[in-house]
User: Fold these one by one.
Assistant:
Number 1:
Amino acid sequence: MTRHETPEIPNPDMVPAPSTKGCRNAPILKQRGQHEVFCGLTGIIWLHRKMQDAFFLVVGSRTCAHLLQSAAGVMIFAEPRFGTAILEEGDLAGLKNAQDELERVVQDLLARRTDIRQLFLVGSCPSEVIKLDLARAAERLSAQYAPKVRVLNYSGSGIETTFTEGEDACLAAMVPVLPDTDARQLLMVGALPDVVEDQALDLLAKLGIENVSVLPARTLDSGISVGPNTVFALTQPFLGGTHAALERRGARHIPAPFPFGEEGTTAWLLAVAQEFGVDQAHFDAVTDAPRARARRAIAKAGETLSSKSIFFFPDSQMEIPLARFLTRECGMQAIEVSAPFIHKGIVGPDMDLLDEGPTIAEGQDVDLQLDRCRNARPDLTVCGLGLANPLEAEGLATKWAIELVFSPVHFYEQAGDLAGLFSRPLRRREMLRLEAAE
Ligand code: SF4
């Protein structure tokens, strides 16, 4: 395995231009074999915090209930906004009418929880295996409980999915029922922590971009709509289904690098600003100060990261934009950047900026990929929870990909924290090494 030269860190005062040696057209290693991923139910953990009047009812097994309960760490006295309608053996064997059972559960839930305005019926592996028609159930229940409650369905199953597809499926399910509009507007798409979303909206307002909505909205009554004069910018790279659903409604995507780090955030904002005719002087006036803050914050963590090598296993679908950030802004060397899916219409602008050199891989054959990782001995490996412990035991420093979705990492004010997420495991390993040497 050869490592490519340390990429030149771009002059931060320049608006990034596509690298002449970007990897958009680099060969992609495509592998299909055993893969190690979490299921799409995981998205409920951050979506239920974001959508304040929603409830996520998983139609699944006790395993699904345990996954959610342990991953969300909900205290038992809290009233969570998710739950599981557990399919019992009788349902699975077709002995009972699962549709009737589900309707009864929904009736009880809505009678008890009058705060619920949006109910998502979330499919799982067991509900898909018995071919329970949740779309039909959602349609019937929506008609029954409208206008107070909107009932939608999507799949969070772990059959051939990766964990971020849950959010994508949820957002895509909302698009067809959004009201029509002819208004010229920007839709910012992706579930961000409220504080990060507010920062982004503040920047857009300062740029003079009016009429901005966010999908997912915090509540059902937020007035979000879509139509042929809507343009949308994604804040997460795993929203391929939502992207397609919005285009079907006539909206147009603004392709841009993702707002990770100073450079990515500037490029993302610039793409939106250009769409709305914001002049460069005004753009600079708004972004100069936060850009400088972001650069200072990144430089601090960058001292640990500079010249270190990194290997990405496919998990969150954020791998390509993160590799772009870590190589160009933190001086890391990417050995392999693999993602579960590579949608060039979405991550193409990040691929333009990511220098050629690392292996770009799509999909996974986990044993072969582990061999490549062991041979390369990267300084840092980004992977799922299932691979992290074994790799740590083999002396490799790891970063859990799922943390990148749970942590506030977007836009200028989080750029230093994003770099810090990658520098911490390296510093911890160095401290352990020094302690062992004493
Ligand atoms: S949806 Fe499938 S993979 Fe996810 S917890 Fe349930 S059974 Fe497991």
Note: Residues 280-305 form the longest helix (26 residues).
Number 2:
Amino acid sequence: MAPFETLRRDLRTILHTMFGEPLPTFRRRSPLARHGHTLSSSATPETLVSRPVRIVEVVRETPDAVTLHLEDETGRAFAFHPGQFLSLLVSIEGVELRRAYSICTMPGGPRVAVTVKRVAGGRVSNHLVDRAAVGDRLAVLGPRGASASPWIRPRTATSSSSPAAAASRR
Ligand SMILES: Cc1cc2nc3c(=O)[nH]c(=O)nc-3n(C[C@H](O)[C@H](O)[C@H](O)COP(=O)(O)OP(=O)(O)OC[C@H]3O[C@@H](n4cnc5c(N)ncnc54)[C@H](O)[C@@H]3O)c2cc1C
């Protein structure tokens, strides 16, 4: 904000306070606003309801990382921005566990993929790395998460560069 603007705003605030008028509403700024970035709100009613998906491809990237390609059972496309994640609801021995995994495909296709890296002693990651198979059904919540890039827009490309290497480096 320019110094003159700041001075004007401060004077206006003082005058409003002195004469008992209500203060002008302060605008909430996102932490990245000064860089011109916007944080998209990620929670919509649609993303708060779980949706059934099927594993349509399993790529065992390394002994400790697996990429799961998912399709919505109803054929509905996934609308998401790069950087968002899905919450997978995985049933293990009758208990439903929820874990977040970043989407690692480009927006626009009928599928989404996530790469899961084994965590020592972790229940869901070990289960998925060792046991996930094509045809398995699970549910997901989301996509969720802020997209903070002003230059990244939803795209219609269907390409999917494998993020496995990145995931296995995490
Ligand atoms: C936004 C977001 C995005 C993510 N994206 C990815 C992704 O793309 N890929 C990915 O691989 N992961 C990702 N994660 C991490 C992922 O959500 C899981 O946390 C991870 O897979 C571990 O889950 P788990 O069930 O295997 O481990 P958990 O069972 O939750 O255990 C985690 C750790 O805690 C220890 N632990 C568990 N219970 C106890 C206990 N009672 N006492 C002591 N220690 C215990 C375990 O031994 C293990 O080391 C993401 C997380 C977030 C928040």
Note: The radius of gyration is 22 Å.
Number 3:
Amino acid sequence: MTHTRQLADSGTVTSTASALSYNPVTDGLPDSWWASYGITGPARAATHDPDGDGMANLVEYGLGGNPTNANGNLLTANTSTNLGGTTWWRFGFRARTNDAALAIQPVFKSSLTDADWSTNGVVRKVSGTPVAGGEYEDQVWETPMDGVDRKFLRLGVTK
Ligand SMILES: [Ca+2]
């Protein structure tokens, strides 16, 4: 659209209207997810942790947490079991399944001084049970504990 206005004795000025568009800040997470928790503007950062529970917004998004309500433990299972003479650490978590770009991978260390986290010996034990209308599934994983007295778990959530 063009708007032209005649100015008194000094010629014309012509301006062209620009298209306006809405481009919400999402930092890679759906606008609807941010909006459902009332998070707006610059606070929409995947690495922020507004509730201070140690889990960044991306982790809350991937594991079905509430980024405005501190809950430092999103494990749905955390037990040990002995199968065939081997002790296994069994743990579970809710994993988002309706975002193909999202990856959730448990990794371990036997000591926090170990250089790298490892997926060695981590086994997904049970195929996920769909929950929340198919947005998530509850997954159960195991890792053997024979020969070690402790392991440290980290859930790698990437997008
Ligand atoms: Ca958090």
Note: Residues 34 and 44 are 7 Å apart (CA to CA).
Number 4:
Amino acid sequence: MRWLGAVQSLFFAGQIAHCMVLNGTQIVHELGSILSNGSSIYLPADADWDTETTQRFDTWHAPTYVVSVKPALTTDVQKVVRYATLHNISFLATGGGHGYSGSLGALQNGLELDLGYFNSVTVDAANNLMTVGGAVRFSDVEEPCYAVGKAFPVGACPCVGLAGASLGGGIGFYSGLYGAISDSLVSAEVITGTGALVTASESENSDLLWAIKGAGSSYGVATSLTYRVYDYLNDGYAMNADMLFSASQMSSLFTFAKSWLEKQRKELSITFSLIYVATLQEVIHASVPYALNLYEIGVEDLTAAVQYFNDTVASTAALQGVFLAFTQYAQYGFQQHPQNSSSFPYRDVAIQIDGSAASDDDVPIIDSFEREFRDRLVNISGKDELEVYMQFSHGDEGADAWFSAANVPKLRELKRRYDPLDLFRFYNSVDVD
Ligand SMILES: Cc1cc2nc3c(=O)[nH]c(=O)nc-3n(C[C@H](O)[C@H](O)[C@H](O)COP(=O)(O)OP(=O)(O)OC[C@H]3O[C@@H](n4cnc5c(N)ncnc54)[C@H](O)[C@@H]3O)c2cc1C
């Protein structure tokens, strides 16, 4: 229905979308009668709602649900998608629950299509392949790979969904070697917005494979994904070194980072994190993300920007839950894969910047400071327009910034083919029009 698409675009004007008034009990009854026995359905009032359904990492602009459906089989997922379409019910598939884009807040009182039962991991060492279910997390694949002498380029936090991350690219400390996680995606079983189950691979629906390797959550539900795995290096050991620097050393650190741009070893990833520790944060509730890509390291400009950041945070109690990370991967891994091999757009980034700030009470102040700081950095990013890693984005940057202006026309055309009703529209999505 078109009105739902219009609702999404109103989100950042401060208006929240409410999908049709859902009666969770009715859905339990109707879906319960058609799903296979192993499936489960929960209502928020159920005692085990918090433990049995996928909970979201962040309370900021969180989607809300009147019902959570956990299908057991791929055919059950198809039934849920068709049922939701028939009854005009807005829904979101959830994997690891770590999607934190503000765009998700547009889904209120919807249906959670919880992929929690799609949690299998199979490593085929002989063929260097790994097949996982749609809700498997980074932590679930490390041991099975290591046990057979293989490595896989997971991201930094173990609890993030592997499908969720890699459908939007997926970056981490192995990116310098292997590129984005999506670069290792070989094929996926996807239930599209038409309810069809299709294989996306080089030989079948290769255009869909291109699209889901970067903009994947706009096209359907991936119940099974097969990735390339790699012989592990260094007997499977990696070294992590944490060092503490004072703010006065910032200029030297950026000089060092700049000197590494051309010669960074592909095995090495560097992250400079700024964490203000004047007050001890207790529990993180609302975390407001911002991010951007830097293509050049202007030492003086960056040092001045960070100095401004430090001074402002130090003098503003409301901002003292901020976290800012500058991560530098070797470009080698990204550049092993041609630009047109997928919709993952940005392969020549010098530094990925992502920041968030946690607070329950001071979200407007935090939001406005982070936005202002992000906009300052855009001016020294080496590009005229904001470009951002979609998975770390705030959620209002738009498709050109997430996927690149060059990719958007093809992504739209594919969206019209695979999700013509725009069912998969709540997460930094590609528009149908
Ligand atoms: C603490 C934290 C650490 C992070 N670390 C990293 C990192 O190191 N590297 C990195 O690249 N990103 C990282 N991210 C960002 C992460 O990649 C995105 O937030 C990603 O969307 C999370 O996926 P999920 O499955 O956990 O989340 P969910 O909230 O479950 O899903 C997010 C989006 O992906 C879709 N989705 C999930 N699974 C499927 C599926 N099987 N089929 C179709 N759509 C699906 C959902 O519908 C939703 O639109 C991090 C995020 C957090 C909060």
Note: Residues 299-314 form the longest helix (16 residues).
